[in-house]
Inverse folding.
């Protein structure tokens, strides 16, 4: 499956989710390519740490810029999954990835959640759907408050009701230090010892939604 993690906004958790998904998918025995299309190279940096430490399973990571759709189509036969990390801006990489992705996930922090930041994304999606009509695009609430009494999901749902191109993923990820620690060590939160059970539960729910739901 080709999964794009992209957003127009920077720092919302794209690389965090892309690297966690890549490691979790590889742990399930799949050949995964993590495709870093962001010139900041954070996903590449993460995978280098992982390689240097000899962490298994190894994850293939490649960088590609510009029109990535042709390259992704070529590589699709060589891997079970391609997870694309697209940089935090409206870019050729983000737009061209949408042409070949099966699913796209847009992490958004609840504090930045408003219809104005998402409507350009919805427009981009509707253009991509002309060429890739089966594309499904989901918003993921990331770095939600660790205090479950704050109903950020309900507010988000209300805002998204007006944007028919975008659906809200059922699972959400809260702000947990484990995600920052795992990133530093070239790991997913599911590989850390000792584990943060809440972080693991949240990312696992999301992972299942991405890779195991229709
Ligand atoms: N759920 C989370 N809990 C705690 N920290 C998080 C979480 N998600 C992301 N972060 C942290 O937030 C920062 C930004 O995350 P990340 O680099 O994944 O965002 P990004 O969207 O890839 O940014 P950019 O647009 O710069 O590529 C990082 O320091 C990351 O460790
Ligand atoms: Mg990033």
């Amino acid at each position: 499956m080709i999964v794009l993690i992209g957003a127009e906004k920077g720092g919302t958790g794209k690389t965090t989710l892309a690297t966690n998904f890549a490691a979790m998918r590889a742990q399930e025995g799949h050949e995964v390519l993590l495709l870093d299309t962001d010139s900041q190279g954070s996903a590449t940096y993460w995978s280098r740490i992982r390689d240097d430490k000899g962490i298994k399973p190894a994850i293939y990571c490649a960088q590609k810029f510009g029109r990535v759709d042709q390259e992704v189509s070529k590589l699709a036969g060589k891997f079970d999954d391609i997870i694309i990390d697209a940089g935090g801006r409206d870019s050729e990489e983000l737009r061209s990835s949408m042409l070949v992705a099966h699913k796209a996930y847009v992490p958004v922090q609840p504090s930045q959640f408003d219809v104005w930041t998402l409507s350009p994304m919805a427009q981009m999606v509707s253009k991509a759907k002309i060429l890739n009509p089966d594309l499904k695009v989901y918003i993921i609430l990331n770095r939600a408050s660790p205090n479950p009494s704050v109903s950020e999901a309900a507010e988000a749902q209300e805002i998204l009701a007006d944007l028919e191109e975008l659906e809200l993923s059922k699972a959400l990820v809260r702000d947990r230090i484990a995600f920052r620690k795992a990133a530093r060590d070239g790991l997913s939160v599911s590989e850390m010892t000792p584990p943060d059970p809440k972080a693991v539960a949240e990312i696992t729910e999301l992972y299942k939604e991405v890779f195991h739901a229709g």
